[in-house]
């Protein structure tokens, strides 16, 4: 996960530039008092109505123009966010920020798609491609406006001294994304195997479903090291802004990565009070920086869709059309592998593959560098797989295989295809280009509900992806699973289903032949959702809203059951407070504050007791469910007298947690409140720059309940030296299928990322309070609640 740090300069950022607010100077006396603008790229007039919360409702005469409108409004509201991600992924940071960014640019360029872009574009459904062209044209139309009137530029540009990049639709094919994936797990497994300590890996990342490690034939585990990850580590490090570059801690980033899950549930009409299905979804992404969702409504002949989109990605990711609601959570797929190549002793530009020596494919790139000569870099590939590290002295090179770089892996077009679908069958057809591992939820106006897992899943005939594999060709992938081969269900008998990143392969799924993943999130959120939905035969929209904000902790229940009856004087007060607690991680709970201090102490002490010293450099975090299972059923891993060791472990954790709570919150537990520590603070990602920090006031002061394991996921990463909320649902949706105006939504902190806009933080208090807002959809409701109207007319380019 790439973090973004800050840069430079001046007080000019504090100027309130004219014409830059959400309504662009339009008065709020009524939508008929709107304005007309001329934009290049629109094919016909477009109407944009916005409600009091800044949600744009775009009415166009074609699907192309509806997506043009989305590109335009997201660039208007989030220009810097959209532009920053685009520039970083293209590997064009050094050209504006200087030589220290060359390494990051090289890493980004290594993972650009190097196949036939024209062939990829021709393979797309023509209507999908035309909508993508509209989206790109809409972003560029906003850039045209900013070039014509620089006073409207977002404040970052004046501070950093840069200008936005114009977009090219071909880049939607080239930008496939590169990242470490789970190949660092493969390296860890090999290192533990070489030390004879692989059995302990389950305490950090248990295999699910049940599975046994098998080392690929020909792999020398003792030769595997973190050096094999090469440029993946360099590309994951923070960008080098500022005078000091923070040390990169991959373990802290790993905590962030695995915490970013989501919840979704779908309830059939047979189990709702109205007889209509309800679909709820709250994606858990990073909290503390720029909002990862932007809400928009797109209407055109054959298209009527509303919901939250990812700024810079065309379409709506979670929302509904006029026919069906759709949601998504992360499904776990192992989509990357490391392959160890043998290079030729007298020519390291050749490698052994399928019985012959082959030359690496090479690409020469020139990286422009601000205030310095351009740098030329050579990027190497084996069978289209990027070479991430080389060691000619050992006749060794390492490549990363990623489904993202396969032909047809056009994820940036997949959301458009979903938005254009009109039923379950066409939705499943759209998922053929959906690369990202996803649980898709579906509920339509006819009462049908469905779950489809999708994402490109490699076919591995000879291995399971848990170790690096020899790169001689014998372990190469042989294709990907089709949508039809992935797990799914349609109108399940239970009348409801849910996904919360848990291992949800059906019991009869042939996972031994179709190896999808062996690493999944703990099931605590799902188990609580199931507990609630299973007890509600007449579920309502209000019940879904309440469940999205549920703070009952199943791990806390498990801990309380394990508290010893005999305790030391130092531990007894903690046990007494926890025993009288309802196990809700509420903002105003003293016991919740104590629990959140006890659990890290317990995890640390458990690791010290169970993990051998020779493995602790590799096993730095403990899996919560595996730890609690081991404590509940003490065995030889806890020592010769496991029950006594377990009780002593709990005693020490309780005493240490109590001492920590006293230090943080004072000596009187009656005054302790979890929300006093657990706050929601939002700052610009580059706020280490004084000028950025001054121009973009921090949004804070809000107290929160919840933690990483409650349905209302409000995750903490203690490695970042803070109890602030770092992960959670910044966007929440509850869809009343067919009675669409009853649907409810929240967004944190607002639609705009510009502090001069009234929509910079206007959702913040509602989000903290869980006060979900109407998501107006029908023409009558949209017209009644519109406060501004903009008419776009085509202009000649």
Please tag this protein with its features.
797 residues; alpha+beta; Glutamine Phosphoribosylpyrophosphate, subunit 1, domain 1; 23 helices; 29 strands; disordered N terminus
What is this structure, in a nutshell?
The protein has 797 residues and is an alpha+beta fold. It folds into two domains: 176-550 and 680-787, Aminohydrolase, N-terminal nucleophile (Ntn) domain (Glutamine Phosphoribosylpyrophosphate, subunit 1, domain 1, 4-Layer Sandwich); 554-585 and 590-672. Residues 1-30 and 243-247 have low confidence and may be disordered.
Please write out the topology:
Layout: E1 35-40, E2 46-51, E3 56-59, H1 63-90, H2 94-97, H3 102-110, H4 117-123, H5 126-148, H6 155-160, H7 171-174, H8 183-195, H9 231-236, H10 250-259, E4 262-267, E5 278-286, E6 294-300, E7 303-309, E8 318-321, E9 324-330, E10 336-344, E11 347-353, E12 356-359, E13 361-369, E14 372-382, E15 385-391, E16 396-402, H11 411-420, H12 424-430, E17 438-444, E18 449-454, E19 469-470, E20 488-490, E21 496-499, H13 524-533, H14 541-548, H15 554-562, H16 572-579, H17 590-610, H18 624-632, H19 642-665, H20 674-677, E22 679-682, H21 690-695, E23 699-703, E24 714-715, E25 727-729, E26 731-736, E27 744-747, H22 764-769, E28 773-774, H23 779-785, E29 786-795
Parallel strand pairs: 1-29, 3-6, 10-19
Antiparallel strand pairs: 2-3, 2-29, 4-5, 4-21, 5-25, 5-26, 6-7, 7-8, 8-9, 9-17, 10-11, 10-16, 11-12, 13-14, 14-15, 15-16, 17-18, 18-20, 22-23, 24-25, 26-27, 27-28
Helix pairs in contact: 1-5, 5-11, 15-18, 16-19, 17-19
């Amino acid at each position: 996960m790439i973090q973004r740090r800050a840069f430079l300069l001046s007080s000019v950022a504090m100027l309130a530039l004219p014409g830059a607010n959400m309504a662009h100077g339009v008065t709020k006396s009524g939508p008929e008092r709107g304005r007309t603008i001329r934009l290049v790229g629109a094919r016909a007039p477009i109407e944009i109505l916005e409600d009091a919360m800044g949600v744009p409702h775009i009415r166009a005469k074609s699907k192309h123009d509806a997506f043009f409108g989305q590109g335009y409004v997201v660039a208007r509201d989030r220009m810097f966010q959209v532009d920053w991600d685009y520039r970083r992924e293209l590997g064009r940071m050094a050209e504006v920020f200087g030589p220290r960014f060359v390494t990051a640019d090289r890493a980004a360029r290594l993972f650009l798609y190097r196949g036939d872009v024209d062939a990829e574009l021709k393979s797309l459904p023509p209507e999908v491609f035309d909508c993508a062209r509209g989206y790109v044209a809409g972003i560029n139309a906003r850039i045209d406006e900013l070039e014509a009137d620089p006073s409207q530029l977002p404040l970052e540009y004046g501070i950093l001294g840069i200008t936005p990049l114009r977009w090219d639709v071909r880049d939607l094919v080239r930008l496939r994304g590169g990242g470490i994936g789970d190949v660092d797990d493969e390296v860890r497994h090999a290192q533990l195997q070489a030390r004879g300590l692989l059995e302990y890996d389950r305490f950090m990342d248990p295999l699910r479903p049940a599975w046994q490690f098998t080392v690929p034939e020909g792999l020398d585990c003792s030769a595997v090291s973190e050096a094999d990850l090469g440029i993946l580590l360099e590309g994951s490090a923070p960008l080098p802004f500022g005078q000091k570059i923070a040390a990169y801690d991959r373990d802290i980033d790993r905590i962030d990565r695995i915490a970013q899950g989501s919840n979704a549930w779908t309830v059939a009409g047979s189990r709702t009070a109205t007889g209509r299905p309800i679909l709820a979804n709250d994606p858990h992404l990073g909290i503390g920086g720029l909002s990862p969702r932007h809400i928009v409504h797109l209407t055109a002949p054959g298209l009527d869709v509303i919901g939250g989109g990812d700024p810079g990605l065309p379409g709506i990711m979670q929302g509904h059309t006029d026919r069906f609601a759709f949601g998504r959570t992360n499904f776990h797929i192992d989509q990357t592998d490391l392959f160890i190549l043998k290079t030729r002793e007298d020519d390291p530009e050749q490698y052994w593959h399928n019985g012959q020596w082959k030359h690496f494919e090479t690409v020469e790139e020139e990286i422009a560098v601000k205030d310095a000569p351009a740098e030329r870099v050579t990027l190497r590939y084996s069978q289209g797989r990027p070479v991430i590290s080389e060691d000619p002295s050992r006749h060794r090179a390492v490549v990363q295989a990623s489904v993202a770089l396969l032909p047809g892996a056009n994820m940036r077009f997949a959301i458009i295809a979903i938005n254009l679908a009109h039923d379950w069958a066409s939705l499943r057809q759209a998922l053929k280009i959906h690369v990202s591992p996803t649980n898709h939820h579906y509920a339509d106006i006819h009462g049908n509900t469905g779950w489809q897992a999708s994402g490109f899943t490699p076919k591995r005939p000879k291995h399971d992806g848990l170790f690096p594999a020899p790169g001689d060709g014998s372990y190469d992938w042989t294709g990907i699973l089709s949508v039809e081969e992935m797990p799914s269900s349609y109108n399940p008998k239970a009348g409801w289903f849910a996904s919360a990143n848990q291992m949800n392969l059906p019991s009869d799924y042939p996972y031994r032949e179709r190896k999808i993943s062996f690493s999944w999130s703990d099931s605590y959120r799902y188990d609580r959702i199931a507990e609630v939905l299973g007890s509600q035969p007449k579920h309502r929209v209000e019940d879904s809203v309440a469940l999205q904000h549920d703070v009952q902790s199943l791990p806390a229940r498990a801990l309380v059951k394990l508290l010893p009856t005999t305790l030391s004087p130092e531990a007894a007060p903690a046990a007494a407070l926890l025993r009288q607690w309802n196990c809700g991680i509420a903002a105003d709970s003293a016991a919740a504050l104590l629990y959140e201090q006890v659990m890290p102490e317990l995890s640390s002490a458990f690791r010290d007791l169970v993990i051998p010293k020779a493995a602790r450099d590799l096993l730095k975090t403990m899996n919560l469910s595996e730890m609690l299972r081991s404590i509940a059923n003490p065995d030889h891993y806890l020592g010769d007298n496991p029950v006594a060791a377990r009780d002593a472990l709990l005693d020490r954790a309780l005493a240490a947690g109590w001492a920590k709570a006293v230090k943080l919150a004072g000596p009187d537990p009656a005054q302790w409140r979890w929300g006093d520590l657990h706050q929601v603070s939002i700052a610009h990602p580059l706020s280490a720059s004084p000028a950025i920090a001054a121009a973009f006031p921090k949004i804070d002061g809000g107290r929160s309940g919840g933690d990483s394991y409650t349905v209302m996921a409000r995750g903490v990463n203690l490695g970042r030296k803070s109890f602030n909320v770092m992960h959670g649902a910044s966007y929440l949706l509850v869809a009343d299928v067919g009675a669409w105006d009853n649907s409810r939504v929240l967004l944190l902190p607002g639609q705009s990322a510009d502090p001069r806009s009234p929509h910079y933080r206007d959702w913040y208090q509602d989000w903290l309070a869980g006060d979900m807002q109407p998501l107006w959809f029908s023409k009558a409701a949209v017209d009644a609640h519109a406060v501004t109207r903009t008419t776009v007319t085509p202009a000649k380019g």
